[in-house]
Amino acid sequence: MTNSATSATSTLSAMDTRPAAGASIKNLPVNLFAAVMGLSGLSMGWRFAHTEFGVPRVVSDAIGLFATFVFVVLLVGYGAKLLRHPAAVKAEFNHPIAGNFFGTIAIALLLQSAVLGTYDSALGHAVWVVGTVATLLLAAHVVSRLLGGNCHPAHAVPAWIIPGVAALDIPVTGSHMPMAWAGEVLLLSAAVGSVLALVLFTMIVTRLIQHEPLAPAMTPSLLILVAPFEVGFTAYVNLTGRVDLFAGLLFYFGLFLFLVLAPKVFRRSVPFGAGWWAISFPLAAMVNAGLKYASVRGAVPLKVVAGGMLVVLTAVMFVLAVRTVRVLFNGRLLAS
Questions:
Q1: Which one-letter DSSP state was computed for residue 289?
Q2: CA dihedral of residues 220, 322, 74, 11 (deg, nearest 10)
Q3: How does residue 27 score in pLDDT terms, banded at 50, 70 and 90?
Q4: 295 exposure class (CB count in 10 Å sphere: 0-12, 13-18, 19+)
Q5: Do residues 46 and 287 lie in contact, with contact meaning Cβ atoms separated by under 8 Å?
Q6: Would the pTM count as exceeding 0.90?
Q7: What number of CA atoms fall less than 13 Å from residue 84's CA on the CB side?
Q8: How many CA atoms, within 13 angstroms, populate the side-chain half-sphere of residue 186?
Q9: From the CB of residue 153, how many other CB atoms can be counted at a distance below 10 Å?
């Protein structure tokens, strides 16, 4: 890997490996918003379990409200970072790797619209509109930056997929929007998200094959490669209203990728840090897709597997939350 590529990846890796010294809001990483995505997706999964399996709705509500709380805390924290350290935010946004994680804010807005819409439909609609606008603007910015040239092949890491997945989350969360124009926006978003995600997926896989492996701290982001297929499954089903052969192909390929990548990610040698939250939203997308697929197919074994996946996802989220709180209070999360 060239010096320029090493420099670009070292900044993101340093978020998770820096020493516990000089804690400051300046060091709050934007990739923590992935926690909101994962928790919101988990809430949606348990809501589905309430409908399909009779699980008390309080489980989904509690997780959803916790996701909202985390989102508000992160918005306040990152807002403080923007006000006090605008240069740091600008540098993070323009970074060829870390900048893609700003898509997690847009996706968090979209998923929160589904969570909040359960209690107040008008609020849910408003949050969805804001999230949709932010997502499409970010996708346009990312494409414009890529087409500007001078992008080193080694910079093509799984985080590049996030803006494309963000566009796919618009039809995932907006299929029931009452606005007359919503249908066309859903179609536009699906077109942008699917093509952008697949093009970037191809570039990323090429980079993973032809260049050095990802830095250990970035290894968890490999599971982001699962997201286009599982989120694409839900977006496609919402747009067409059916789970057909093509939907099944999307779901099963995403599952296949997870089985291939999981042994590379879940290793003791991979250090814990904020980057681990990158696994939460692709796992949540896979679980929600699995629950939907199993409910339509109606096969008991599929329902058992999907329910088991939901329980495992819940355990993973709990571990991530506990470990994040630990590094927050020992000062490492915001260390320089």
A1: H
A2: -40
A3: confident
A4: middle
A5: no
A6: no
A7: 11
A8: 22
A9: 13
